[in-house]
Design brief:
Number of strands: 3
Radius of gyration: 23 Å
Strand order of the largest sheet: 2-1-3
Strand content: under 5%
Length: 353
């Protein structure tokens, strides 16, 4: 009994002296997320200028940034199915397809790094979480806001939405139907219609966005955790990833710092291995752990992966595939400007085919 108590005290003293070498990783993630939010905001502003010049009939000095196609996941999913069926890359929104492929591949290699490091919605959600911590949770040390039953029910929603798109596109549409949609005026103007959703925001849409923002202050990453079908797809892919966070229960002090740090409130302190598709690979749990080698990546102890390698592998994959797309001509659209002009001028009145 005395030996156990002595060992426990020695371990606690060692843990207190140890400074987590990965403690700056969350700060780096915040800077990368902020950079991507800024990048996509500037791309949106540039695209708005391009759209206004196109529909006005005046001189066109702005450029259409291909990155805006990252907000067209349905078109990208159709493009992916067409690529697999025919071997033909999407000529209309090639950047959207490239981004989807990069997100899928990086999710297998490094879990949902796209969600936790790249996605601008994830970056905004993290900012709203920070607002919540500075206001509602400032004096609270609670681990979760919703109980396990409600969390499970809400989490299932994004998988149901994903299942609907899977049934409608992967099962319900053959290559003829997909080709017909992808060569439709509606698809040509899909990026313009997405822009108009925000610039001509309806009262219903505005109220919905306000409610989602408010819920994200109260509940960490509400949209990402419960409603995003893109994240659901990447989660299923990351489920097959060989990498995950491993907990050594023999040295764990049950302080719950890991669970409090988790952006999706996974009960890391209860798991021997974090296999769940909800894990974003952000490494927040590992960086918050006060005990050396208690939480490691893929393997226990010193033979584990460095937590720095997860974002490095994920972001490296995304940049590599972006570079390949640029070099091979699979980033910029092949659509003639005259076709875009005609489609954009009809964007206000186009209905989904």
């Amino acid at each position: 009994m005395n030996e156990t108590a002595s060992a426990t005290r020695a371990h606690a003293a060692s843990a207190a002296r140890w400074r987590n070498p990965y403690r700056f990783l969350p700060n780096l993630r915040g800077m990368v997320q902020a950079a991507y939010v800024l990048f996509f905001a500037l791309a949106g502003i540039e695209f708005h200028s391009f759209y206004r010049q196109v529909v006005s009939g005046g001189p066109i000095t702005a450029h259409r940034p291909p990155a805006v196609e990252g907000f067209l996941p349905i078109s990208a999913l159709m493009g992916l199915k067409r690529l697999l069926l025919t071997g033909n890359y999407d000529e209309v929104h090639p950047a959207g397809l490239t981004i989807l492929i990069a997100a899928i591949v990086s999710s297998f290699l490094a879990r949902k790094v796209f969600c936790s490091w790249v996605c601008p919605v994830g970056g905004i959600s993290r900012a709203l979480e920070w607002v919540g911590k500075k206001t509602l949770w400032k004096r609270s040390k609670r681990v979760t806001v919703v109980n396990d039953g409600v969390d499970l029910a809400l989490t299932s929603l994004k998988y149901l939405i994903l299942a609907f798109f899977f049934w409608a596109i992967v099962i319900g549409m053959d290559k003829v139907a997909i080709h017909k949609f992808m060569t439709s005026t509606y698809n040509y103007a899909a990026d313009a219609k997405m822009l108009l959703f925000f610039t001509d925001l309806s009262r219903t849409a505005a109220i919905t966005l306000i409610v989602l923002a408010a819920l994200s202050i109260v509940i960490k990453h509400f949209w990402c955790r419960y409603l995003c079908p893109y994240g659901a797809l990447l989660g299923l892919v990351s489920w097959a990833s060989p990498h995950r966070v491993v907990r050594d229960k023999d040295v764990c002090t049950d302080c719950k710092a890991c669970t409090r740090a988790c952006p999706v409130e996974i009960a890391v302190h209860k798991k021997n291995s974090v296999w769940t598709p909800e894990c974003t690979g952000c490494m927040s749990c590992v960086t918050s752990c006060p005990v050396q080698d208690c939480l490691t990546v893929t393997r226990k102890g010193r033979e584990s992966w460095s937590p720095w390698l997860i974002p490095a592998a994920g972001l490296g994959t995304i940049f590599f595939l972006w570079g390949v797309a640029r070099v091979t001509g699979h980033w910029q659209t092949d659509m003639p400007l005259s076709t875009l002009v005609e489609a954009y001028r009809q964007a206000h009145t186009l209905l989904h085919p």
